[in-house]
Design goal:
40% of the residues lie in helices and 16% in strands. The chain is built from 11 helices and 8 strands. Helix 5 links the parallel strand 2 and strand 3. The chain is globular and about 55 Å long. The relative contact order is 0.17.
């Protein structure tokens, strides 16, 4: 089933220290949700437990740098929000969407319990014609015939492997059907971690590999990130034109890596049920790696940059007039340097975990 995920987005020009704290706060909320998601083995999305354990999920959505980035892209395009589709929803995105001047929103989740709880606990009165609906994007009849001016997909592609394997390339065509002429889709994702980045970053990647190994040994499916160029390629194949994209570097601190290792630890009882010796060896490995991370990152100033998050804005490709020559769309450069706006000024260094350890 296609499980719901919430969205967030990127970069007002405020002092970098302030930007970093704001973006970290929002990413921590998403981190909490995903960490619990992995710990429960994709069997459901225990939102109420997440909110109880991580009260920062109740923060103001305006603190989210990723959401600010989407607002900036929308303003630059001089487009109204219109009818809004949150293709994989969560409490954080709903609070943000509720602050926008929309003509009503539809928020999608695959979890009936989450929908029921959210209607009660979201903290605002949902306005008509706003709605939270339960559905599965693999259901061809779901939301049939309905179109929206703005579509949001927050970490949805990376999450699909856990509950709808091998559907990632099809979700673009599926969502495109619901983009109104002149409308936009905003997609948020995370670049896969490099295999061997060198230095202290090696330990971050080692922790991610160990986490995923424990998830697999427990018989569950890990989150699967997709690179920015794959995302834009699939969007083009589905008949969309990428109008802008931004990259946001991610910083890791010992406690953010520890959350990844905690995910691995929560799988050990399942592994121990069939192979106690293996589980014991993995437990020692987790403890050893945690110690090495703390020591290495302390010598690197407490944080290390590894990879980046990205935000992509796309629109429906326009069919050329009869007899006109078809030309390839040119994707404009993102803000902050580089073709995709990465690395340089205007991007945000966010202290956050990789997706599977949030």
């Amino acid at each position: 089933m296609v499980q719901a995920f919430e969205l967030s987005v990127a970069g007002c020009r405020v002092p970098q220290q302030q930007q970093q704290q704001q973006h970290f706060t929002s990413r921590f909320g998403r981190a909490a949700k995903l960490a619990f998601f992995w710990s429960f083995g994709f069997g459901g999305f225990p939102q109420q437990k997440i909110r109880a354990a991580f009260p920062r999920l109740g923060m103001a959505a305006t603190e989210d740098a990723l959401f600010r980035s989407i607002e900036g892209m929308q303003k630059a395009a001089n487009k109204p929000w219109g009818k809004f589709l949150d293709a994989g929803t969560g409490t954080h995105s709903l609070k943000w969407i509720n602050t926008l001047n929309t003509e009503g929103f539809t928020a999608v989740t695959a979890d009936p319990q989450f929908a029921e709880n959210t209607r009660k606990e979201i903290g605002f009165k949902v306005k008509t014609p706003d709605e939270i609906v339960v559905g599965n994007w693999r259901d061809e009849k779901f939301l049939e015939g309905r179109v929206f001016d703005t579509v949001l997909a927050d970490y949805l592609v990376g999450a699909i492997d856990g509950f709808a394997p091998y559907y990632q390339d099809q979700v673009f065509e599926r969502l495109k059907r619901h983009v109104a002429p002149g409308g936009r889709i905003y997609l948020v994702g995370m670049q896969p971690l490099p295999d061997h980045p060198g230095g202290a970053a090696e330990l971050v990647c080692e922790a991610a590999r160990l986490r995923d190994s424990c998830i697999l040994l427990a018989g569950h499916r890990p989150y699967r990130e997709y690179p920015l160029d794959w995302i834009t390629r699939q969007m083009k194949k589905s008949g969309m034109v990428v109008t802008s994209a931004k990259k946001m570097p991610v910083l890791y601190a010992p406690h953010t890596v520890k959350r990844q290792l905690d995910v691995a630890s929560r799988k050990l009882p399942i592994i121990a049920a069939t192979d106690p010796k293996l589980a014991a060896a993995l437990e020692r490995h987790i403890s050893d790696l945690d110690g090495r991370v703390r020591k290495e990152l302390a010598g690197a100033g407490g944080r290390v940059e590894v990879g980046f998050d990205y935000v992509v804005a796309a629109e429906l490709a326009r069919e050329p007039a009869a007899g006109a020559e078809r030309k390839e769309a040119v994707t404009p450069e993102g803000e902050g340097g580089g073709k995709w706006g990465g690395g340089g000024g205007g991007t945000v260094a966010a202290e956050a975990t990789t997706a599977a350890a949030r």
